Amino acid sequence: MRLTSVLLVLITVTACGNGGGTASSPPPAPTPSALFTPPPVAFDEAAGIAARDGRGGRVTRLHLYGPQPPIVWLAAVLGGDGVLAELRVDATTGKVVDRQAADPEAAGTAAHLVAGDEIGVAGAREAAAKAVPGGWITAAGLEERRGGVVWAMEAVDPARRTRKIEVDAATAATRIVP
């Protein structure tokens, strides 16, 4: 009985990698976050879906959100009627899964920012993509900075680092934010 117990302990310790036998294999690498893998519905497609569902309005904000599935694009679209719609676009299927009107104060702020935007979300994406070659865009939002309107963008570069980019909404000039 005692020999059986000793053998059982020896087998258990060896199987766990502490028994002096061959070195155990290293633990598997962590699975990359879903936000570091481009979703099936890319930024441009999500922006188009949001604009169409927002009654042909102007996208003022679009960012990928998904600490866990389902991953969605969160969008804000200022419609021609002055209503700011907040949408959730499924990043896998492209379906709008939620839509609601934002408060009127947010709509007023968005209208002010859109008035200073000459390039739109597509122009901002194009400029940001040139600033981070091989990367993909995960977020964009119109903001007022230093007295002007900019698109505050985020991109994931080929090395899977998040890069922040400011794109001037009037000229499309870019600046990588440290």
UniProtKB/TrEMBL annotation:
Leader peptide range in chain numbering: 1-17
TM helices/strands, residue ranges: none
Protein name in UniProt: Membrane protein YkoI
UniProt-annotated stretches for the region Disordered: 19-38
One Pfam entry name: PepSY
InterPro entries named in the record: PepSY
PROSITE patterns (UniProt xref): PROKAR_LIPOPROTEIN
Record domain PepSY: where: 124-172
Keyword list, A-Z: Signal
Composition bias, Pro residues: 25-38
